[in-house]
Amino acid sequence: MDHDDFRACLISMGYDLGEAEFARTMALVDPNSQGTISFQSFIDFMTRETADTDTAEQVIASFRILASDKSYILADELLRELPPEQAQYCIKRMPAYKGPGAVPGALDYTSFSSALYGESDL
User: Fold this and answer.
1) Concatenated DSSP letters for 41-108?
2) Bridge partners for 6 per DSSP
3) Rounded to the nearest 5°, which phi and psi values hold at 44?
4) Apex CA 69: angle with CA 46 and CA 52, to 5°?
5) Between the CA of residue 111 and those of 25, 63, 94, 117, 121, what are the distances in Å?
6) What is the separation, in whole angstroms, between the first and last Cα of the chain?
7) How many beta carbons lie within 10 A of that of residue 86, not counting itself?
8) C-alpha span between 74 and 91 (Å, rounded)
9) At what angle do helices 56-66 and 109-116 cross, to 10 degrees?
10) Which residues pair with 107 in a beta bridge?
11) Is the pTM of this model over 0.90?
C-alpha cells in the first residue's frame, strides 16, 4: 500500500499521528523510502505495536525474513533493508556465522538477537 493508504489505515484503527511521528513510523515500515509498505512490513509493524515488548524470537524472525529464510544474513542485505545507521550497528556487532552453509561474510543474526535480549553472551 502507499503511504496515504497506510496513514488512512492507521487513522481508522485509532492512531492519531502527527507529521513527525508518522515520519518516524514510515522509517520503520518503508526504511528504503520506496513509497510503498509491503504486507509483511505492515504485519511486522502491527505486531510490534500490539505486543508489550519484542522478544529474541520476534527479532530473529524479522532477520530471517530479511535474510530470505537463510540461517545467516549478509552485510549487503542489511544495508539494503535497514536504515544505514541500524545496518551499520548490526554489521559491527553481529558475529560471523559458522553454521551449515556458511559463506564468506555471513553474519549470525540468531546469536546477535539472543545477546540483545540477554539470552546469551556474544
Assistant:
1) HHHHHHHHHHSSS--HHHHHHHHHHHTTT-SSB-HHHHHHHS-HHHHHHHHHHPPBP-STT--TT-B-
2) none
3) -60, -45
4) 25
5) 27, 11, 8, 10, 8
6) 38
7) 15
8) 9
9) 150
10) 73, 96
11) no
Contact 116, 56 (CB under 8 A): yes
Amino acid letter at 39? F
- Count of all residues that appear for the chain in the document: 122
In one letter, which amino acid is 51?
A
Digits of tens for pLDDT over the chain (122 positions)? 888 888 888 887 777 777 888 888 888 888 888 888 887 888 888 777 766 556 788 888 889 888 988 999 999 999 988 888 888 999 999 999 999 989 999 999 999 988 887 755 45
Strand-pairing partners, residue 36, are 2
- Element of type H or E holding 4: helix 3-12
53 residue type, one letter = T
13 grid coordinates: 484503527
Angle, helices 3-12/19-29, rounded to nearest 10 degrees:
110
